[in-house]
Sequence to fold (694 residues):
Amino acid sequence: MKKTYKIYVDCANCANKMETAAKNTAGVADAVVNFMTQKMTVDFEEGADDAAVMKAVLKNCKKVERDCEIEL
Amino acid sequence: MRKKQKIVLIRIIAAIVMMAVLHFLPVTGWKKLALFMIPYLTAGYDILFEALMGIKNLQPFDENFLMAAATVGAIALGEYVEGAAVMILYQIGELFQSIAVGRSRKSIADLMDLRPDYANLLLEDGQTSQVDPDQVPVGSVIVVLPGEKVPIDGVIIEGDSSLDTVALTGESVPVTVRVDDTIASGSVNLSGVLKVRTTCAFGESTAAKILDLVENASSKKSHSENFISKFARYYTPVVCISALVLAVLPPLARLASGISPNWGDWIYRALTFLVISCPCAFVISIPLTFFAGLGGASKNGILVKGSNYMERLSKANVVAFDKTGTVTYGVFKVIGVHHSYMNENLLLEVAAHAEAYSTHPISKSIAEAYGQPVDKTRVSEVHEIAGKGVTAMVDDSEVLIGSEKLLEDHGVRSIPCTHVGTIVHVAVDGLYAGHILISDIVKEGAKDAVSSLKEAGVSHTVLLTGDRDVVAKAVAEELGIDEYRASLLPQDKVTVIEDLLSKQKKGQVLAFVGDGINDAPVISRADIGFAMGGLGSNAAIEAADVVLMDDDPAKIAKALRISKKVMRIVWQNIIFAIGVKLVCLILGALGIANMWLAIFADVGVMVLAVLNAIRALHVKNI
Fold:
């Protein structure tokens, strides 16, 4: 299952780091962060609870880039 | 400028003013340190704070940490001016980057300004109510006033007007529409009031599909983007470790060989490294270039579905075309009247009347060539003979119209035609009256399109068609296409593409251009599939990698040129940014470059790379 979320991040390298952080979150099969359109597309693993996974994604992203936001 | 950016700007200006004042104050020692801390902290307190947070979160290698380490180090070495100045310059660079990127993001978003804000839904009592386009049921009637965007695809049931489709096709000439015409959402109504019966929900309409496509385009990342983000991941740590080595090893070596270790000098060189270690210039400029290129192409009615396709397209060396609808109009047209004893228009008038009751595409094309309304009362005793033609009485003359065979059956000898196309013979009152040559005509600009593809680096062109050999040969020769394959069934086209693909060398790219409706399997089999006439055809938008919104063949070469320009800028930025940084690293290690040069290399390269990236947006005249 794929879902797209609106994000706020203001540097490109931070967006890259968010992408890596999101990819390494349990329940995420793949993630793509698009800095230009400020969007994160997350492909969830089969049977994952997307709401719970996204909370973890946000937490992991905040670790690498304190100044980011994901609209859940 | 956003509020956050304004605050940063004020802080930068304040810090610069303070630096200027401090320059003329005759203070030394710890007083000087204390005074210089004021502009330093004014400019960089948030950087220092973020750096501390980074350490706390075990993410030490971020830009904030690097800048903090470099500037604190410089101050510790007594280089107060440099420490504060580097911080100020870094902030200027960041501010510029955020403004430039924000601007270009906005201007690209404006290009694709297709999203309608509301729809005027016509209610049963004849009143209209403004509703969200999402709320309009399929088959309901909406009213589009002059100046408004068409919110949902539909068919006009009342009114006529002209539409501005520039946001969809890049074509600035308005299109005239009247009752029964299908109109696409995203176009702007220019003159009359239109009542439109919607044919789909908003989510399925052209505007929504295009927006969706463009917004998701840059999530398909190209090799160059992936290369850069990988590179950035290693670059910063490698430079940081080198900095550490540079700070420790040479002094220890000197100590071991009995000379003065010169710690300060080597630590200073190491700090210079830290300033150059920020990967921002390439991390920002490469995706920005692709984004700008995709935006610029969309503005011209060329939708590329991802940066990866943009990259692949630039390497295209073979282009295969479908014939009908791609390089020809796909509609039959009268292109000549031969061997007639009567006036050309008179013959067409007779023919059009005799065929008045026929619905065959051929008779339609004759009626079109005649160009005036057909008066059916002048026609009587119409007999349609299947596969041969029609006999009829027109104004009391007996007219035979159809194949050679039909005329032969009635004892009339016809003159054969040497041209390529469908031939319709006409006889009036037992006398041969000439023949009409009907053919699918080649699109205006198709020839130029083929030759400009050649100029853009395509080495081989192929024409694929289900049509007869003679027709394929004639079209290929007329357009200057190198090779043709005729009499192909749709499944044969896939085989031909596979055959062509097998002759390709590694890294070469084969593009196929089709009309998107019949050619979906071929479009998806080719390395790059183009669909033409995407406006209003969802099948085309789904199947292809590149969608040309109108059916102008010149756009194929244009798409190729845009992709080449984008890739050129991408490589310029990669080589330029990495090159300058490497040179500065070497000069820094040798002690030739100081921290001033380092920060200029960092910020300057970033500014130039961003400005260069924005060039990709301007593709109007290429």
Summary: The CA atoms of residues 71 and 83 of chain B lie 4 Å apart. The first helix of chain B runs from residue 3 to 23. Chain B has a mean pLDDT of 85.
